[in-house]
């Protein structure tokens, strides 16, 4: 009964959204969930700093101060936020892995936390999760952006899904740097994953943050470097921020996609210009120096995974695996989270093998052997990207 009630409250929240803006909905976990608000400078060498609390306005009586939680940034810095989940019982002085779990279009950090149930995976396996929040107001089912104050966002993953070329890669780099400075993170075991727009973004992170992460697991999102249709994009994302995927290091990829997905269709979408899953996987095989012939390593009535792990000639020392898991489940029109661990039961695919445990086991097989986030590399890479893309928007201004 309580479970039912709690699920209906969550459904109501997802539909009405208003109830999740200022407070983090309690996910069923035992650790600590905190919202961080950071000021991100346009200067790539300046670290993220926590935003400062805005004093209560004089006209607001003190007994109403509980309604006042606003923080701000100065110097034209951009305010960005994320939810950090730290499980209980981490051993002091031990560095643990970090998973960055990126939300979908028209969602936010808290919804991703509830929807994927990854806090529980962190509890069971002792790692930290950070759920970054997008910046652009999501353009949803119409051509118009979400109304002001509605906490539904998107990430600029290149061809999808931002109406401005916001520097989200810059934000994610500084967020991870902040996590490394403030928590005991094993910098060789930082991973990226995400759903839908977050899956597109996970692909972009694998392309542009291969000096930071050790492996990436996009769900229902493809590598989408440029929006190429001549017609205006139906959601207004036209030419948000084209990029070229040219990672410095090989990043192992686990791509999970539902064959029945109606939102990010398996075979691509003419309307939105989305490439197909096989195009996206083909690109990764090339980028990762593995052969096009894979082997089925897991198969049952709902799921089939194919692993591409054989290096091409002469690349035995410079390759990474690509794995594609295809699910057949019609929940949520096929646009669902794999496995049934999340708490948004109505958005879960009905398979039970390729799930959070599977994603985590994939991550644990991979480790990066180089040190920390490199500010210098960040600066150079961003200059290159700026040169390539022409311009980047930072906090509403063009750089
Ligand atoms: C996080 O680390 C930064 C240094 O990069 C420091 O300025 C900041 O105060 C730390 N924040 C917290 C909450 O400890
Ligand atoms: C994932 O699936 C495996 C195999 O069915 C199962 O043992 C495991 O408990 C599942 N994990 C979660 C988080 O549901």
TrEMBL record:
Keyword Hydrolase: yes
Xref: Gene3D superfamilies: alpha/beta hydrolase
An annotated GO cellular component: extracellular region
Keyword line: Carbohydrate metabolism, Hydrolase, Polysaccharide degradation, Secreted, Signal, Xylan degradation
InterPro entries associated with the record: AB_hydrolase_fold (IPR029058), FaeB/C/D (IPR043595), Peptidase_S9_cat (IPR001375)
One annotated GO biological process: proteolysis
UniProt KW Signal keyword: yes
EC class of the enzyme, as a word: hydrolase
Peptidase S9 prolyl oligopeptidase catalytic domain segment(s): 175-224
Signal peptide: 1-27
Gene Ontology molecular function terms on file: feruloyl esterase activity; serine-type peptidase activity
Subcellular location: Secreted
Enzyme Commission designation: 3.1.-.-
PANTHER family: FERULOYL ESTERASE C-RELATED, PTHR38050
Protein name: PHB depolymerase family esterase
Origin species: Skeletonema marinoi
Lineage, top ranks: Eukaryota, Sar, Stramenopiles, Ochrophyta, Bacillariophyta
